[in-house]
Amino acid sequence: GGLLDGCSRPAQGSEMTMCGARRSLCGLMSLTILLHVAQIVLYPPLDAASQRSVRQSQPPATAIEPAILRPLATTAAAVRGGGGGERLMIVTATQPGPCTTRRGDHVLSLALKNKWQFATMHGHGMWLSSELLSPWDLAGQWNKVAVLAALMQPASEARGGASWLLWADDDVLFSDMSFRFPLDQYEAQEAWLVLWGDERMTYELGDSEGVNTGTMLLRVCDWSRALLEAMTRLASSSLRPVLTNHDQGGLVHLLHTAPELWRRHTRLERDYTMNGHWPSYTGAFTLGVATLRSPVWGSSALPVIVHYSGCQMCRGHSFNGTWTDRGVAECVAAFTANYIFADDQSLRRLGLRHTRLGMPGVRPAEGSPLFARHAELTRCMPRFLVVGTQKGGTSTLHYVLRSGWHPRVALNKGEKEVHHFSLDDNHAMGPARYQARWDGEGAQLGTCPGREDKVRGEVSATYLDYPRAAERAFALLPFAKVVLLLREPAARLVSSFNMRWQVEVCGKLTWTRRDCFKGLSSREQVKEHAVGPFQLAAALKVWARCQTPGGDGLDASCLGADFVEKLANRTRRERREIDVCLAALEADAPPLSLGRCLGLPILSQRKLYKRMEDGAYVYRSMYAEHVAVWLSYFPPEQLLVLPSEPLFERATVEAQMSRLAAFLGLDYKETNQEVLFSASPASVTGAPHENGREYVATPPPEMLADLRAWLCPHNARLAGLLLANGLVPSASDLSADLPWAAAPPGGPTIGCEPAPAGAAAPSTRAPPVTTAQPPLPTAANAEARHARDEG
Predict the structure, then answer these.
(1) 3-class SS of residue 640
(2) DSSP assignment of 126-160, as one string?
(3) Per-residue pLDDT averaged across 205-224, rounded?
(4) pLDDT band of 362, cuts 50, 70, 90
(5) What is the pLDDT of residue 323?
(6) What count of Cα atoms within 13 Å lies in the side-chain half-sphere of residue 677?
(7) Residue 281 buriedness (CB in 10 A; 0-12 / 13-18 / 19+)
(8) pLDDT-wise least confident of 244-253, 391-400, 582-591, 751-760
């Protein structure tokens, strides 16, 4: 009684217009009024009499059947075309408030984009709800019943002309973006409810896991309205406490206890994967391939939808004993790979494509107009970038490359490092100014007559670890080769600090003497070489503390103590801040990164440069963090990892340069080998070795051991990253090239257990120091502190 239309096609003229999702938004005000009315009309509190068995409260089959079968006046043209097209509206919902983690909000936004893309590709409408329509009885998972019932009302303008509603939980993803739901087939079979399910579990056993209501199709008709009303009554009945799996258990209860009412028009779909469980499809997708890598449940066909249930991605942790924090991280990784796989199918319609599953970088698809335009304008840009690491031999490699090692290699003119992608001011000058570093002032993009055959490149050690450098490089040079020089992390850290310490003590003299501290003989000379007021103040403190009794120089032992004390203080302070951030990352996985937790992306160029060059010694030695960022944009085949140490040895430098030549596509027979064995201007060994500096002291062995122990899990993570991506062919190659990151056969990595990717390293305390330390930073105030500094 009171139900209007049967399950026929909608009347002519009621269909949604093109871009039905837009029509849905236009009906927002009407739906808002309707929802308030629906709360009163559809979901009144039940009196004692109505708290009987659910089966007794449902209308008899004879009362529903005539309305179901009554046809509506319509034409085929009003509903056909597009495999369902505007006949279908996708309905989903999110919780009213934000997630408890930034990662959760980001993941949900990707899930919504995925549904919107599928709807757009097929001309479907879409409705997104973030309201609890009847929170007193239909909260949580039951809210979908209220949303669907409101949209199902005959007077609903928000539904437009849609004759089918596809409910999709917020944690499901479409995987096969080209799939078309066989609505004509369902209508011919009079299947008004379609969802994944198992006949025996549902109808015989009444098992709440016999179906999955995370995704389900409902025909807009009286039968469906009656079903939703029955579920509504069940939600406020005395049976609800014993139902498992929320609304899913309620639906199974109805199908199990009243099959004569509901079974005839319900189809438990098994012909395609309407609701795949994510562990079955982890690692099963191949970018751009329309079949699975290996069959799942006997089929290589793509799943239409994969459900990431149980992952607690919005909450950020698991209260279910079956799920651990590690399990949540694995689910997020699988979700991201599926999202990229589906997004790639959509973006190819724009002439774009993703480079890797699980990574955000996109590039123009070959053959697209955007690809042709980009290729034409960047044809005179660098083909390779040496991105670091700082104090990893980049100056030495730069000297070799610019000294005629190979006739086809052309580095930029002027100073060694361009910093185009790492420093905001340089990047803001634009690509034409960047090209001018090779072609001079007045250079025009894509124009370099007579120099097209040159293999252009540049060396900037800030690219590896500065925020946004990898992103910017990929945007301009998505096909560039990327070279990474990696030095033993603790040695790199000490070398980096040594350079900054010398600048602090010597000022400008640092750039003309590798032992600058031996060249200062008076207070006036300290002032003469000053580079700024802060440096001068620090240098005068050292002079007052360490001048010789005769006042004509600096005492070496005093300088050594100053060096060691400042190294201990600064690395200890930095490690404590990083430890806090690593602990925060355990509770809030990507997109929150270590660099973001440290506040680096929000700093101005001046403050970022100061922080990175004199305050990020440990962070810049955490190579796994930075290599992972470059891998998120560039595919592994465009990256080459070279150990730094062999570049400084006569016996090994040739083999390293041979690898570089092969990577850049250069004929090694054309190389000038004499360059590799000639002394560079700054060399003291007779071999190319630029920018080497004398140490005033060596850190105590216990300090180095402590640094290496702290860095060890991060080195182990790097090893796993390199091996997993084929950047190092095998474990034996890893042991030969990067022994500080390699695990001995059957044993731990240099005294520490290898850490899984993304895991936080245990905190190891630095030895006591004599100077007072600033307050311990917290994850909550890290970004705020840097924001205040910025202000």
Answers:
(1) strand
(2) EEEE-S-SSTTTS-GGGHHHHHHHHHHSTT-STTT
(3) 93
(4) confident
(5) 55
(6) 9
(7) buried
(8) 751-760
